[in-house]
Specification:
There is one protein chain. This protein has 82 residues and is mainly beta. It has one domain. It contains no helices and seven strands.
Length: 82
Amino acid sequence: MAASVAPAANGAVPDGAYKCQMWMGSSYVSLGTVRSVGGVLTPDPLAKVGATITGVTPSAGGITINYTTARGYRESMDCARE
């Protein structure tokens, strides 16, 4: 399922492939590769854990995905450009 996200106010999210990783407990977990095409992420890297993407912004080495967890916590994840 694709996650449609609004680009940041300061610029569009660059199209391309990004490798997403995040800390879960004491482990650094790879969530795989996500592609951004026209502001749409496929596949949604957080769908498996029940999180909802609330925004995506460009960062120095890729993108930052802001999301809300299934329990309602607001968090972010960095994804590096491949």
